Amino acid sequence: MPRNRVFWCIVVPCFVLAAALSVRSSASGQGVRLIPMKDFFRNPQMTRLTLSPNGDYIAFLMPWQRRLNIHVQKCGEQRATRITDARERDITSYAWANDNRIVYAQDRGGDENFRLYAVDIDGSNLKELTPFEKVRVGIVDELEDIESEMLISMNRRDPRIFDIYRINIVTGEMKMSAENPGTISGWLTDNEGKLRVATSTDGVNTSILYRKTEEEAFKTIVTTNFRDSIDPLFFTFDNRYLYVASNIGRDKKAIFKYDIERDKHLEMIYEHPEVDVVGLMRSKERKVITGVALITDRHQYHFFDEKRKRLQDTLEEKLRGCEVAVASMSRDETKVLVRTYSDKSHGAYYFFNRPTGEFHKLIDISPWLDDEEMASMEPIQYKSRDGLTIRGYLTLPKGVGPKNLPILVNPHGGPWARNVWGFSSEVQFLANRGLGVLQMNFRGSVGYGKAFWQAGFKQWGRKMQDDITDGVRWLLTQGIADPKRIGIYGASYGGYAVLTGLAFTPDLYACGVDYVGVSNIFTLLDSLPPYWELGRKMMYEMIGHPEEERELLREISPVFHADKIRAPLFVAQGANDPRVKKAESDQIVEALRKRGIDVQYMVKENEGHGFSNEENRFDFYRAMEEFLGRHLGSKVEGRS
Question: Using an 8 Å Cβ cutoff, are 188 and 194 in contact?
C-alpha cells in the first residue's frame, strides 16, 4: 500500500563512471564463462539465519524436496534438525517465539492469505494457529517476556481491516485485544508489549492515536495529510516518548524524539542532507539507541554508541572487502550472526562470540557462484528532460568495452519503492548473457525526499515514463547502448512501464518482458485486495480517480494503446496474484494477439505476484533467456 514507504540514495558523477568502466572492461579480458541459468535462480544452500533468544541455537531456511524449510542446529554442533515439511511452497517468513518454539507463516499458491503455524525446535508439537480461509495474519509483537503468547493482526472479522489478537502459540487459543473501528492502518506496542499507539486514515489524512494504558480509549493526537508523515518507530525505554521518522516542515525524513502526548518534536536524532533516514537501531539489553541505518548510493551506518561502533569496526576488520551487517543477536547481545554481501555475491554468514572472541564462517549462501565472474553494479545519475536528477545503477557485462552494447532497461516495481545497490540474481544473469542492465529511480521513487516522491503523483505513463526514456537516451548519448538492441523488462509497476514504453515509445525498444504487470488502471483499481481498501483514496490522489479522471487513466493505460505496440512481447503471470490480477495480463495479450503481434504468454497456476517455486523460476528465466536471445542477440545457454 502507498503508506508503506521506505527511503534512501547518492551517486558518482557520470564522467567518473565512464572512466571506471573503461579501465575495468579493458582489464577483464575476453572469454567470460556462460554460467548455467539454474545457478542464478536455484534455492540458496542456506539462508535467513537467526539466533535463538538465549543464543544456544541457530535456525535457518534450507532446501528440502525443492522447498525452503526451517532447520534448527545447536551452536557448535554439525547436525541440524528439519522441523517443517513444506512441499508445495517455500517457507520464507519465520521468527523465534521463545527458546524452544518457532512460528512461521505460509500462504497457498501465492494468494498472500498467510496462515500462522508454530512448532518446537525438535520438530514436535506442530500447530496451525490460524486455520481460516481467506484470512491474512501478521505478527505485531512477539512478546519476548511472555513465552507462550504473542500479538497478531488478523482480518478475520472484516477482510478490509486488521484487529489485534493475543494468541497462545501452543494451543492456538486467542482473544481479541483491540477491535479495529474501521480506520486503523497500523498498531504499535510499548516495551512491555502493551498496545499504546495506532495510526488511522480516512484515505488521504493520517492520524496518530495514543493512550497511556490499555484500559483507556485511544485519542487522536495529530492528523496530517498523507504527504506529510510522522512514522512511529518505537517507544523510548521509559515508555514515555516515541522515536519517529518525520518529514513535518521539511523535505527529507529525519529521526526525532517525539513527545506524543503534546504532539511535539523534541531533539533531532539524525538527518541526512540528501536522503531520507528511517532506520533507527537500538540495544534492548543496554537500553540505548545505537545508530541509524540509511541508504545513499549504498547502505551506510552512523553510530551514536561506542560499543556498537566497536562491534562494527571489529567485523569490518575481520571481513575486509565486504559489506557487513549484523543479522541476529542473542538477547544478551553476546553472540552475533554476521552477514556479508556485495554487488557480486549473495554473501556468507559468520558466528561471533563477543566475550570469547570466537569467530568462524558458517555458510556461503550460494557457493556455486564465483564473485570473480560477476559484473560490477555502478551508481549513475543523469538529468531528466525537465531538469530532475535521476539516480540509479548500471551493470555492464564483463569482458567487453562499454560501447554499442545490447541493453535491458529494468524499471523497478512499486512504484513507491526504489532500486538499491547489492546482489541481484536477475541483473547478474542478464549481464552474464552479455546485456547491460540499466536500473533507475524515476520520480515517485522513495528515499529522496517528499518533493521527489510527489513529483510522480498522477505521472504514471507520463513524466515517470519520461524519466525511464531519458535514461535510455543518456545511454545512447554516452555511446554505451546499441540503438537497435534495447529491450525493457520489469515486474509489477515495472511491467506496466514495459507496456507503456512499448506503446508510447515504440521506436525505442526492440522487445519487452512484462512480469505480473498492470495493463489497465481501471481494472487494477477495481480489483484491489480488500485489505488495501483504506488506501484507495490515497491511490486515487497518487494515480488518478477512475470516475473523475477517466480520460487521464485511459490515456495512461497501455491496453487502450495496444495498437501502437509493434515490438515482440513476453508476458508472465501468476494465476493467484492478489495485487495485479491475471486479467491485467489477459487483456494486453488478447489485444495484441488480435493484431497479430508476437506475444509469448506464461501463466503459472500455483503462483501469485511473482514466481516463488524454484521450478517455476527456472521455466520463466529459461524462456526469458531464449526470448532476449532472439530479439537482442544476447547469449543463450546451450548455444555456441
Answer: no
What span, in angstroms and rounded, lies between the C-alpha atoms of 389 and 413? 20
The b/e string for 378-393 (b: 16+ C-beta within 10 A; e otherwise) is bbbbbebeeebebbbb
Q: How far is CA 626 from CA 434, 636, 640, in A?
A: 13, 6, 13
- Nine-digit cell at 119? 512448532
Closest by CA position to 202, among listed 219, 188, 181: 181
Range(s) of the domain holding residue 146 = 46-182
Residue-wise pLDDT for 16-57, tens only, equals: 333 333 333 333 335 789 999 999 999 999 999 999 999 999
Domain harbouring 491, CATH code: 3.40.50.1820
Half-sphere exposure of 585 toward its Cβ, with a 13 Å CA cutoff?
A: 30
pLDDT in tens, 171-207: 999 999 999 999 999 999 999 999 999 999 999 999 9
Query: pLDDT tens digits for 264-279?
Result: 999 999 999 999 999 9
Residue pair 104/90 in contact by the 8 Å Cβ criterion: no
Longest pairwise C-alpha distance within the chain: 72
The three cell numbers of residue 229 are: 508523515
Given 129, 156, 182, which residue is the final one in a domain? 182
* Angstrom distance (rounded) from CA 266 to CA 162: 31
What's the pTM?
A: 0.92
- Split into its structural domains, the chain has a count of 2
Domain boundary among 153, 182, 211: 182
